[in-house]
Amino acid sequence: MVKSFYDMKAHRIAVTVAALVAAVFIFGGRIRAADVSFPIYFPDSKLIVKADVMNRTVYLPIKEIIGRMGLPYTDSVALETLTIRSGSNQLVVTKNSALISYNGQIILLPSPIVREDNRWLAPVEFLTTGLSRMTPIEFRYRSGTSRLFVGNIEAPELEMNAQTLGPITRVTLRSAIPINVGVKREDPTKAILSLNVSPLDPARERIDHRDRLLHSVVFDDSDGDSKIVLDITREVSDLRITPADNNRIFFVDLLRKGEPVTAAPATEAPATTAAKPDSVAPDRRVRVVVIDPGHGGMDSGAKTSAGIEKDLTLALARRLRTVLQMRLGTTVLLTRDADIALDNEARSAVANNNQANLFISLHIGYSGNKMESTSSIFIMKEGFGETVSQTSAGNQLFLPWYLGYRTHRQGSAAAATMLQEELIKQISGWKFAIRTAPLAVLGSATMPSLLFEIGNLNNNVNAQTLADNGFQARLVNTMVDAIQRFSESPQAAAN
Amino acid sequence: MPRHIKIGLIAMGIGLAVAMGFFVNIVGRVQSMMKNDREIEENPFKAPQPLYAPTDPPVAVKLFFPAASGEPLLTAEDEKIFKSGELANRAKQILQKLQEGPHSESMFPSLPKDTKVQDLFISEQGIAFINFSNTVALNHPGGVLNELATVYSIVDSLTYNLPEIKEVKILIGGVEKETLAGHCLLLLPLSMDLSLTNVVPREEKTASLR
């Protein structure tokens, strides 16, 4: 009795497992996705066909394509063959066979040709390796994509990229030719960027990004018009498009709801509305200042027993924000208001996205030389990267983004000079030099921008002074004096 | 349970396991992991090549190190290298001298400790590509000016002494990095900047002598 029970159970398990395995082999072999629209771009027109995806292979309807190309064919139901003719050449395909015959010569396709409901379906290779022998027309297809180019049609390359830059997420589009991009938010979780050029040849069709703002970026031209579908989250409050390099590059920034660092509109009053500006300056051109406390998070910057750079820069930045808001009524944003790590691009992105009129990156110096005590005001090195943009702009597809500094280098130099003058006047016993350097955080800032490196943390006297409250207040007030001067000068950009 | 069914089930189980293994490409993953490990290891079979021949004549060079006075940022120290036939070997000798640090008390070393030059080659356009070990970034103490001194100590020492080298591109750990230690952009090759030093450019010097 017991024995027969076990037998039964074993049989049942065996049969179930066998059935499952069989199911995987039988049905798994022909996983069929829904029909997809597949545009075929001819030099003078485009044809949108319904493609079938079977076993992850794209199958195209042959008769529609050869009909468009004007080639005569005979569809023999009895022989289950399709014969295509062009002059004296003849191409024969057979149902359920991966072998096709061209003038008697056999060509092997990677997967068999299918005939279904009076439609002949063939893998793309049928066109690229079979039909292209018959006609002088070239078919270009990149595997994994869902479009085909016929003949000498030129499709400009399109590159898409998505990046989390601290509080924002940036989608970068790079096109080989100038294009126009329009944005439309269809619903809270979907935004569509429509591109006015078609066809385009995207290097990647889909980017799965998955951060708090963006899930995926998908290029879609299934209806023959190029567009990019952004799968975004409900947290996205705004999308901003910034064109660059004569409309060849577009930065699409996704901004988050209720994020104080970026969501504060440029014209909004500062948080501390109770404090009134101490003077009325109608000509004041600096309305938004972005302050960047250097380093943060795992990157602590210079570190000695006297202090840690990332903490000192944050303390100074907060002080500077308060004094700027109180004295000048400026909108002040910090790139970080906590101990978090940010990369250089994210820092300048905060300034760019908020139309800042001035960008100041704060750092504390460190030198192996304990006697060294000079503070430096850095601006971007003049002409940095110019040779690259001049000599290779023609044959290089993309201009480097870190050349953004060039738009306001004169403004940066003016701001640096004023800051140096005020500091020398008011902070006695310290040395302040203006220097130029190729600095990552300044390269892509498109407004007057400077990096202020204060003192030397390895110099004991410097380090103690820097930690002193009175000194910090004096330093910050002097900086605000300089910013006020700059704000009233013609060099401040009124953007 | 009859024996043949047991055997059948075991065989099926093994078959499934093998199939799953293929599905997740276990062998490929293990191989790629092992390959990565091997690449990180230094090649023990690569014998160090001499940078110069005993017959090569010595030649004077100026090496740029951070100055104790702080102004200018870099000062030159006179040194000698051997004029080997290959340009890359002369460049390597200069970098070796930079690693050894200055002899003068009034100067500071410019390269972080344990910095190694993994490789160096010079392109036809005169761009010297130097691949430093990761230590050049990891052991860098920080500071914008300090980082600038490190970068231009390398760039100026090479371009000033070897005019064939027009620009210097610094790679770290075999790859292109945005910055050396967080500040200085390395995405483009850098050219000589003597404004940071106490040395006049060669052309100006010859012009003033005439």
Question: Secondary-structure map with pairings?
Answer:
The complex is a heterodimer of chains A (495) and B (210).
Chain A: H1 2-28, E1 32-41, E2 46-54, E3 57-61, H2 62-69, E4 73-76, E5 81-86, E6 89-94, E7 99-102, E8 105-108, E9 114-116, E10 119-123, H3 125-134, E11 139-140, E12 148-150, E13 157-165, E14 168-175, E15 181-187, E16 190-195, E17 201-202, E18 206-208, E19 214-220, E20 227-232, E21 236-244, E22 249-256, H4 260-263, E23 288-293, E24 303-304, E25 307-308, H5 309-328, E26 331-334, H6 344-353, E27 358-364, E28 374-380, H7 386-392, H8 409-426, E29 431-437, H9 440-443, E30 449-454, H10 460-467, H11 469-488
Parallel strand pairs in A: 1-12, 13-17, 23-26, 23-27, 27-30, 28-29
Antiparallel strand pairs in A: 1-2, 2-3, 3-10, 4-5, 5-6, 6-7, 7-8, 9-10, 11-12, 13-14, 14-22, 15-16, 16-20, 18-19, 19-20, 21-22, 24-25, 28-30
Chain B: H1 3-24, H2 26-40, E1 58-66, E2 74-82, H3 87-100, E3 117-122, E4 127-132, H4 135-138, H5 144-161, E5 167-172, E6 190-191, H6 202-209
Parallel strand pairs in B: 4-5
Antiparallel strand pairs in B: 1-2, 3-4, 5-6
H/E series of chain B: HHEEHEEHHEEH
Low-confidence blocks of residues of chain A: 260-282, 392-397
Average the pLDDT over all residues of chain A and give the rounded result: 82
Strand composition percent of chain B: 15-25%
Name the CATH homologous superfamily of the largest domain in chain A.
Zn-dependent exopeptidases
Number of strands of chain A: 30
Biggest interchain interface, per-side counts: A-B, 49 and 32 residues
Q: What Rg of chain B do the Cα atoms give?
A: 26 Å
Low-confidence stretches of chain B: none
Under CATH at level 1, the class of the largest domain in chain A stands as: Alpha Beta
Number of domains of chain B: 2
Coarse shape of chain A? elongated
Q: What is the β-strand count of chain B?
A: 6
Distance between the termini of chain B: 107 Å
CATH topology of the largest domain in chain A: Aminopeptidase
